[in-house]
Write a structure and sequence with these properties.
64 residues; mainly alpha
Length: 64
């Protein structure tokens, strides 16, 4: 198996690639934050009245 030659990017090309990625990464982070906020609210609705009860999260879905 032959080794692939590593080709280094020129600085401007690397910066252009980063500029293109930053918007996509920012969008992913914003979506993740929105999802986290929604799930936190949903968890509060589900466990809101169970303050003093031991709640095992995903185990509540186990059926035997």
């Amino acid at each position: 198996m032959s080794k692939m030659k590593i080709e280094r990017l020129k600085l401007n090309d690397a910066l252009n690639r980063l500029d293109e990625m930053i918007d996509l990464i920012n969008l992913d982070v914003q979506v993740a934050l929105g999802i986290e906020a929604a799930l936190e609210t949903a968890n509060e609705v589900v466990t809101g009245e169970l303050r003093d009860v031991q709640f095992y999260g995903a185990d509540c879905y186990n059926a035997g």
